[in-house]
Here is the input.
Amino acid sequence: MAFGPIDLTIIVAYLIGITIFGAHFRKRQHNLRDYFLGGRELPWWAIMLSIVSAETSILTIISTPGIAYASNMNFLQLIFGYLVARVVVSFVLIPKYFAGEIFTAYQFIECRFGRALKVFTAGLFLSTRALAEGVRVFAIAIVFEIIFKTGILPAVVIITILTLVYTFEGGFTAVIWTDVTQLTIYLSGSVVALILALHWVPGGWATVSHLAQVYGGKLQVFDFRFNFHDPYLFLSGLIGGTFLTSASHGTDQLIVQRLLAARTKRQSQAALLSSGLVILFQFALFLVIGVVLFVYYRTYPPSKPFGRPDQVYPFFVVHSLPTGLSGLLIAAIVAAGMANLSAALNSLSSSSVMDFYRPWIRPGRDEKHYMRVSRAITIFWGAVLIVFALAAHLLRESVLVLALTIASFPYGSMLGIFLLAALSKKAHWKGTLTGALAGLVALLWVMVFTSVAWTWYVAIGAVTTFVVGWLASVIWTPAKWG
Here is the structure.
């Protein structure tokens, strides 16, 4: 991939500009409520767009078109589960979060079950979120290195430092507004890319729809067959997507932090529910782009075949889009990855301070002390993510896939814990912890000894945790636990 000087200038100017834009929110950071929740003064629509940005990584942007390019649009069935999950989280968990003043999802667990289970859930979040973000930093660095020929180590360091600057300075307010800016640009740019690709295909959409049908129904969305081994069937997508997103949006501080930043419970619910429409549009857009590019490259074959389907969209952006638009869209894609990284840094810092440092290490100090510590911990997590990103580089692609699987591994148990906290009055912390451990063991067995599709993992872990946790709480009362 090679850019002209205009594209390179646009990328550099954009990355510097978005860093300065985020950093200027420092003047609004006076206390922990400001730094971690934006003072709860953010509009619901900005939170809505930030939720979509937070669940969209650079891997999503470049890989989703590749899915449709290589197969069809069955992946969209998973998104319908994402929509159902938003209803579950909005009416089961959000009311619990707004019943008191909390900064993290795990403080809700403490209110219901005590400190021990809060430490368990927060610890799972910190370890797995850091691992997942290390992989994502490596993915951003790959694109950065291809553009600037810097090598992976400098790319990782530069990307992390730029993101750290505005996260350190601007706190959660900077995270939200940079999310909004970057989501708007990369979605708008992708729409323009789709329009241009359609324009360049002789016959436009009529040709695309005809050839998509000829080459095996590439516009097919629904597949009502059923087995536990195919992730992209209707029930796999609907049920698996529901459990996966209920966990990620209801128990992961990365998303819950946004829900807690809303002014009221109703605005939090409105932001989450309406984000479903944007996420449906986004994935439909990327999948349609993949189908259109399938026809485009049948009309204008590349000089050599693509090694991987997820190379198709970046290749088109770099080699086919007009000068200027190409640079802006690549810059926005990289910056979208930075937005996800900034959200992770702030959420890791918020959980570290609110779930561990303030209650356990230095309770009772003033807000200025906790603000200094929060910024210091943000830098600490930036350093940790650099190490994890470099480790991901050394371990190569096959282990990257494994790392992403491990990162999502605890979601089932975490969702089971939160559902027990919200729905069962009989559940106590020891019974719930028993269920969570059973959920982890059951899921590990499924992953190692069966070929069940990954879309079922969270459902298996959550159901096991809930059922075993409830039974353990009923059978063994707190007194019998000693």
In short: Residues 409-482 form one domain. The chain is about 80% helix and 0% strand. The chain has two domains: 5-396, 409-482. The CA atoms of residues 194 and 289 lie 6 Å apart.
